[in-house]
Write a structure and sequence with these properties.
Layout: H1 8-14, H2 20-33, H3 37-43, H4 49-60, E1 71-72, H5 74-77, H6 82-88, E2 90-96, E3 99-104, H7 110-120, E4 124-128, H8 131-144, E5 151-152, H9 168-177, E6 182-186, E7 192-195, E8 198-201, H10 209-217, H11 222-231, E9 233-240, E10 244-253, E11 256-264, H12 271-274, H13 279-284, E12 289-295, H14 301-315, E13 319-324, E14 337-342, H15 350-355, E15 364-367, H16 373-384, E16 388-394, H17 398-407, H18 414-424, E17 425-435, E18 442-450, H19 453-460, H20 466-470, E19 478-479, H21 481-490, H22 496-502, H23 506-515
Parallel strand pairs: 3-4, 12-16, 12-17, 13-14, 13-15, 15-16
Antiparallel strand pairs: 1-5, 2-3, 6-7, 6-11, 7-8, 9-10, 10-11, 17-18, 18-19
Helix pairs in contact: 2-3, 16-18, 17-18, 18-19, 21-22, 21-23
Length: 520
């Protein structure tokens, strides 16, 4: 059946529900920001969501479904796969006779109905679903799993108040309700939340520059405002009572303020929840050496590092000192003492904090991020002199992490750095977070490069690039991410298309999948 879109905007204008110039503004907004025309009309304040739903129901002769009055069994959810639900913005509701009722944010999307009919083998009956309630349903599935539990919409996913008020507290609350990674606020754009590595826009109007500035400046201390005004960049932590703690970044773009916030859980997830392999605990409990958690931004390095610190805190009697920008997870003193120092509050910068750290009698030194050659130099010295040093590093893979450390030094110092690193490096654990096969949630994939004679020699001799080909030999100290991707794909935890995005060597990945009978 060919896809056909009804001209809802023209009908609304003809009926006097909106003006022609409002339709043009909404069409322009839709072209820039996506979504349905109706959603853009609501975002711009030209019509309320209730008015829009009533109008669509009358004009199209379709029923409007109120999710707060229905319960959707898990068996009904599973009739339509989670990816179709998310991408097509629809939801199976239940059966009416032999017809499967499908709630749709865009009831004019005929192609989506055809796709669902093909998947389910049932004839469909479309009903109109509000965008707000659909987002609340996604938040429920994010928390409870799609197709795992009966769905019943609570009074409101944001604690009794719709986030349409547009205040910071409401949007941060929604970030948690959706189990999202980041909240993004930027002038001229609709507030958005990153969920499973994809940006999803909120059901709100685009923010004006003055609105963002007023919203964010109100949560800054006078000193933080002074730093931002002078440096035009600011990293800081923010706690919202009754909601949670957030790692925030404030910056300027197009002569206006922009803001990003990432939720930091107060409880550190377990190894099972994170998907952390057993061997990582062994390295967390080493007495000395350098252990690096590497990977791109937004792929869970800080959480893995926090799990390692908590493991030490629970199982060793040590003095742990962290230097972070800002402090994210907060630790209670258990078997160990955990002293957390925040850049800008407890020390001027990473290098300054590290220069004095040896006088603080540390057993374990935790560096939130290795950023420059001075910090790296002190970290190497600490690892060489009997301390365990844990840190994160932005890099695409484990060998690139080693190269980045060495390349941060001038050429005349690099031979000495290679020698130091070859002796003190214990492990580079490089990780990525992939979209789960069900479409909701993420799965950890990892790569391992641990110490051995061949690894030490390659680092010392400047032949780190040779280690990548060695990773295909499947030795214990060198495990390619492709091996882990093949395991996850064969187990049905991630889709092949998702694994391909993060593969280091596609030919090797396909060979591994053939061996596992998961690729033909």
């Amino acid at each position: 059946m060919a896809e056909k879109k009804m001209k809802i905007g023209e009908i609304l204008v003809a009926a006097g529900a909106i003006r022609r110039e409002q339709l043009n503004d909404a069409l322009h907004s839709q072209n820039q920001l996506g979504g349905t025309l109706g959603e853009n009309l609501v975002r711009l304040g030209f019509i309320t969501e209730g008015e829009l739903l009533k109008f669509l129901s009358e004009q199209m002769g379709l029923q409007h479904i109120n999710l707060s009055k229905v319960e959707i069994p898990a068996s009904v959810q599973r009739l339509v796969n989670a990816e179709t639900v998310r991408l097509r913005r629809l939801l199976p509701i239940g059966f009416e006779g032999k017809n499967l009722v499908i709630g749709m944010v865009d009831p004019t999307d005929i192609a989506a109905l055809s796709e669902v009919e093909f998947q389910t083998g049932h004839r469909n009956k479309a009903v109109i679903l509000s965008a707000t309630q659909f987002e609340q349903a996604l938040a429920f599935f994010q928390a409870h799993g799609y197709g795992s539990a009966a769905f019943k919409l609570e009074k409101d996913a944001s604690g009794g108040k719709r986030p349409a008020e547009g205040n910071l507290a409401g949007m941060l609350s929604l970030l948690l309700a959706w189990n999202g990674q980041d909240l993004h606020l930027s002038a001229g754009a609709i507030p958005s939340i990153r969920v499973d590595n994809e940006i999803r826009r909120l059901n709100l109007p685009a923010l004006k520059p003055a609105e963002i500035e007023q919203m964010i400046m109100s949560i800054l201390s006078p000193e933080q405002r002074r730093i931002f005004q002078s440096q035009m960049e600011l990293d800081f932590a923010f706690s919202l009572h009754g909601v949670g703690r957030f790692r925030c970044n404030l910056y300027r773009q197009r002569n206006s303020v922009a803001f990003t916030a990432r939720h930091v859980s107060e409880t550190i997830p377990s190894a099972a929840d994170l998907g952390i392999p057993d061997f990582l605990k062994e390295y967390a409990l080493k007495n000395q050496g350098l252990v690096l958690v590497a990977g791109p931004n937004g792929h869970g390095k800080s959480t893995t590092l926090a799990w390692m610190v908590e493991t030490i805190n629970r199982e060793r009697k040590s003095n742990i000192i962290t230097i972070e920008d800002p402090v994210e997870f907060t630790f209670k003193h258990k078997s160990s003492n955990v002293n957390q120092r925040e850049v800008g509050t407890d020390t001027h910068n990473f290098a300054e904090g590290l220069r004095h750290i040896f006088r603080q009698n540390p057993d374990v030194i935790v560096i939130g991020e290795l950023r420059d050659h001075e910090s790296i130099s002190i970290a190497l010295t600490a690892a060489e002199t009997g301390h365990l040093v844990l840190g994160t590093l932005h890099s695409m893979n484990s060998t690139a992490a080693v190269d980045r450390i060495i390349d941060s030094f001038p050429a005349n110092q690099q031979p000495q750095v290679r020698a130091q690193l070859s002796e003190c490096l214990q492990l580079v654990f490089c990780q990525r977070l992939l979209k789960r096969a069900g479409g909701i949630g993420r799965v950890l994939a990892w790569e391992k490069m641990s110490t051995s004679l061949r690894v030490r020699n390659a680092i010392r001799e400047g032949k780190v690039h040779q280690l990548r080909s060695m990773m295909q030999s499947n030795v214990d100290e060198l495990v390619s991410i492709d091996w882990n991707l093949a395991e996850l794909t064969a187990a049905g935890k991630v889709k092949y298309e998702e694994a391909v995005k993060f593969a280091d060597n596609l030919v090797y990945l396909n060979e591994l999948l053939k061996v596992r009978g998961a690729f033909k």
